[in-house]
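Format notes (please read before filing issues)

Several people have asked whether sequences and structure tokens are stored in separate files. They are not. Every record keeps both together, in the order shown below: the sequence lines, then the token lines. Line labels are part of the format and must not be stripped during preprocessing.
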Amino acid sequence: MAGGLAVVANEGEHYHGKLTRFVILACMMAAIGGVIFGYDIGISGGVTSMEPFLKKFFHNVYIKMKEDNEVSNYCKFDSQLLTSFTSSLYVAGLFATFVASSVTREFGRKASILLGGANFLAGAALGGAASNIYMLIFGRVLLGVGVGFANQAVPLYLSEMAPSKYRGGINNSFQLSVGIGVLVANLINYGTEKVKGGWGWRVSLAMAAVPASILTLGALFLPETPNSLIQRTNDHEKVKRMLQRVRGTADVQAELDDLIIASEISKTIKHPFKNILQRKYRPQLVMSVAIPFFQQVTGINVIAFYAPILFRTIGLGESAALLSAVVTGAVGIVTTAMSMLIVDKVGRRGLLIFGGIQMFVTQMIVGGLMGAKLGDHGGLSKGWAFVILVLICIYVAGFGLSWGPLGWLIPSEIFPLEIRSAGQSITVAVNFLFTFLVGQTFLAMLCHFKFGIFFLFGVWVAIMTAFVYLFLPETKNLPIEKMDRVWREHWFWKRIVGENNELIIKEEEA
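Then the structure lines:
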């Protein structure tokens, strides 16, 4: 099987072109959508550990944390209203992504990115000015709409603009941007927590407007992808000129021919969400559900959302907990950058399997140590708290190398053009659904399962690593419009999509 996939990957060599400055600048601007997503993830975990914020909006949690010595360490932050603040963003994003699918298909990737930026701006303004819980949550909902549009369009934009042999690294810039957003949010939280008067949380929430403004203004100048242009127009010369511009060469006929074929098929599909259910798209449909599901049950958003709360649970003070969240965020950025550099050489499967093993081992050790050393009351010694912090950093490093960036890369590159926007919407919706479920239930699970929560996530990591080994083919270096070949040559999926395998291969060779 591996040999067959290697031959397929070499099919991309007849495409000419290079990684141009034009593509790099366009992708850097589009990836700002990831910065906002990461900022929204990181900022919520920080402000929900700030005492003035809790005192104003979640007074019962504040009382339990400060005054109730009978409450278990694991239960002090257990509040459905508190988790609703965090997870409301993802409910809104879940519904918004299906609207974004139609916008992305009919009006282009650029239009969805622009709409995402505008909603981010509105949400940031409302959150920073919030005077009651309703304003606070409605601001999160607007941010969620922005995330729904941006996460639907940005990964597609990056994968379509990038040359085949650089697609992994370019697309991984989205997750790198998410990591940068999380780190920036943690740094801002660490600074604003020290503001006298207790209004620092307003600065944290309102600062989302800065990257939102950059994305909204920058989207006005973004070029549309050749794939989107040909999907929405019959002007092949216009598409050819854009291809020549983004590839930095006049010799783009081979890629243009593949785009024309993909476009002709795409224009026969009127109901992509209905068509994606067909047997020939079964592998892509399974991956569009499985990959984002597995990405969430790694438990990573437990760290992203609630790192300061988690570190306070093990006995760190408010400032130390926020600083520890900064450290884990920095580790995530460094390892995602490493993934960008090696993903197109090592491949997707190898990184996912290696990262899965690393996450599984560290989660088991963290669960064991917390079970042995942290009781229901009191805290860990500074030495053991430091050990837990180091282990969580190793876990975050495993995610940053693998499931973080590749959870967005793989779904964005496996769908044929005719169902691409629908497939990406399913991916984003599943991601947001399980982000919501994990975010909404984590504090309750932490209260009831205690240290066992890490064992639960560890079991899921073991399952998903086995799934990758058995069912995910390698997709590195293969042109995005020829991706269907990996399924027809895979030991399992060829049984489902391979009925016309010989006929399709003969047509391609002809």
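For reference, the curators noted about this record: The longest helix spans residues 420-449. DSSP finds 26 helices and no strands in the chain.
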